[in-house]
Design goal:
The protein has helices spanning 14-26, 34-47, 58-68, 85-93, 111-117, 138-147, 199-209, 241-252, 254-272, 301-313, 329-335, 343-351, 363-377, and strands at residues 51-55, 75-79, 96-100, 122-125, 151-155, 163-164, 167-168, 175-179, 192-196, 279-280, 287-288, 294-297, 352-355. The two termini are 27 Å apart. It folds into two domains: 14-252, Aspartate Aminotransferase, domain 2, CATH 3.40.640.10; 254-377, Alpha-Beta Complex (Aspartate Aminotransferase, domain 1), CATH 3.90.1150.10. Helix 2 (34-47) runs parallel beside helix 8, helix 3 crosses helix 7 and helix 10 packs across helix 13. It contains 13 helices and 13 strands. The longest helix is centred in the last third of the chain and has 19 residues, at 254-272.
Length: 378
């Protein structure tokens, strides 16, 4: 279907085209060039961590960091209200995902329910920072992890640049994952990164990312005749130079990108706050929301579904972020989850709807969206 207003548009300019073209015209080092290390350094500096390592996706990044931290068995507490890669990465690493409830303010893991899910087998907690907003309970979750000697890994896939009390998403735990998929704040088409202050974890990730190969410096395999050693089993999870060059160009625009998103979200908030049947996501005084997504909440599932169908007829794309993972076929079969196991998450998922928001979205397009919402629900 051709949408009058799509859910998102990637933010780009001529500098992005020039950056990628430059690599292509160079005719070499498309897979392992100096731009990769430069991009990683820029990400680490932006977040405020010592190290960043790029990957070909956020999923492979999260999978790898779990292995690097030794999480290959036991239980890992995750939200069911998230993209499925959060829990899939746990399964792929060899551990068991244990789903906990999501709170309705920032759509992050509920710290109180985490306490109820803790067992002697719990080895890690993976909270998410939903849609560009730092999880409301992240400080409480950090305290729980420290009190119980449990690893905290932030799934900050959607929140590059978000802050709480001036502290960046991705800096509350020992390691964090970011995604650069096409709908994220900056994009390399597909891509991801891990940030950490641990040199030990950083070195392990380098091996895991590239077949367990020991390299003296980036790109050695393609620029030397020397035989190389492989000390571990690893994957081919590397980001290409072309993607890293695009990432460098995108990162130059991140503050402008966020400013435009916040401006559009503010306009949405002003318009939608006049509609009693709709609840919008707003930042509290200590939060800085970057609005990677704009999600509204309705009173019930019937109103949500009616609105989604109405907007579809008007050419406006929407999507439910997220449906409960624990009710997907694999998790019901493999781990015996069933409807009613997470009543708060299940109810929340019935009421949320993500509507279009991106930097180039115009005020007239926002007015059109709001008018169609009013047409449907008053």
């Amino acid at each position: 279907m051709k949408w009058r207003i799509p859910l998102f548009k990637s933010y780009w300019d001529e500098d992005d085209i020039e950056s990628v073209t430059k690599i292509i015209k160079r005719g070499t080092h498309w897979a392992a060039g100096p731009e990769i290390e430069k991009f990683e350094k820029k990400i680490a500096d932006f977040i405020g961590k010592k190290y960043a390592l790029s990957f070909n996706s956020g999923t492979s990044a999260l999978h790898s960091v779990l292995i690097a931290h030794g999480i290959n068995s036991g239980e890992v507490i995750v939200p069911s209200f998230t993209f499925i890669s959060t829990s899939n990465s746990v399964v792929l690493a060899g551990a068991k995902p244990v789903f906990a409830e999501t709170e309705e303010e920032s759509y992050g893991l509920d710290a109180e329910d985490i306490k109820d899910k803790l067992t002697k087998k719990t080895k890690a907690i993976i909270p998410i920072h939903y849609g560009g907003l730092v999880s409301r309970d992240i400080k409480a979750i950090k305290e729980i992890s420290e009190d119980n000697n449990i690893l905290l890994i932030e799934d900050a896939a959607e929140s590059l640049g978000a802050k709480m009390d001036g502290k960046m998403a991705g800096t509350f735990g020992p390691s964090a994952m970011f995604s650069f998929c096409q709908n994220k704040i900056i994009t390399t088409g597909e891509g991801g990164a891990i940030v950490t202050d641990s040199e030990k974890i950083y070195q392990k990730l380098k091996l895991l990312r590239s077949h367990g190969r020991v390299e003296i410096k980036p790109g050695d395999y393609f620029s030397t005749t020397k035989n190389m050693d492989y000390t571990h089993i690893g994957y081919n999870f590397r980001m290409s130079t072309i993607s890293a060059a695009l990432g460098l160009s995108q990162l130059k625009k991140i503050n402008k990108n966020i400013e435009m998103r916040r401006k559009n979200a503010k306009y949405f908030n002003e318009k939608l706050s006049k509609i009693p049947k709709i609840k919008t996501m707003k930042e509290s005084k200590n939060q800085y929301h970057i609005y990677q997504m704009y999600t509204i909440q309705l009173k019930n599932g019937r109103d949500r579904d009616r609105l989604q169908n109405h907007l579809k007829k008007a050419g406006i794309m929407t999507k439910v972020y997220f449906e409960p993972i624990h009710l997907k076929t694999f998790y019901k079969k493999e781990y015996k989850y069933k409807e009613g196991d997470l009543p708060k998450t299940e109810e929340l998922s019935k009421k949320v709807l993500t509507i279009p928001l991106y930097p180039s979205l115009t005020l007239s397009e926002i007015d059109y969206i709001v008018d169609k919402i009013i047409d449907c629900i008053g």
